[in-house]
Design a protein that fits this description.
172 residues; mainly alpha; 82% helix; elongated
Length: 172
């Protein structure tokens, strides 16, 4: 009976962690998207009504767009919102399909793990460089790659757990 109780505690803790990460990513997506809209609106307004467009708006809009995509990337994995061609998956049924899904989710983890690993030196290099218009270190921009890969790994791990549960459930 104690094992069942610990299992519930573990699931509750994981659900709380997932909800926290969900909220942080949703908040980051919303803030960066609203900032993107604000900066682009300023650009449009300045082009029509001001004698000179602020030079920093193009760079800022690019950064906000990148962060909007990066914050939303993990959420897209959670919601299975990425475009996928499931022709191969649809050819199989039962355990074989579950194994293939597990393999594909594992492949995402491996690929994004490599992206994360190689993004860290890029972030370090970016610490000594500054963006031309905003003057911020480029590591903030390169850090978006790390953020995207970590969040995609996070949600893909839960997909792998669900894939394993599906396989175990089918074997019984």
């Amino acid at each position: 009976m104690a094992g069942v109780h610990k299992g519930k505690e573990y699931r509750n803790a994981m659900n709380k962690l997932i909800k926290l990460v969900d909220r942080l990513l949703e908040g980051g997506t919303l803030i960066s998207f609203l900032a993107l809209i604000g900066v682009v609106s300023l650009q449009v307004f300045a082009r029509f009504f001001l004698p000179k467009v602020p030079h920093w708006t193009e760079e800022a809009s690019r950064i906000f767009f990148i962060y909007t995509v990066c914050f939303a990337g993990g959420l897209a994995v959670r919601e299975k919102a990425y475009v996928n061609v499931d022709i191969l998956l649809n050819l199989f049924r039962g355990r074989l399909r579950s194994f293939l899904q597990l393999f594909l989710d594992g492949l995402v983890i491996v690929f994004m793990g490599l992206v994360c690993y190689y993004s860290i030196p890029l972030v370090k290099i970016g610490m000594i460089q500054r963006s031309p218009a905003l003057g911020v270190t480029v590591s903030y921009l390169f850090g978006s790659i790390t953020l995207l890969s970590v969040t995609m790994i996070f949600y893909s791990l839960f997909d792998v757990i669900n894939d394993l549960r599906a396989l175990i459930g089918r074997s019984n």
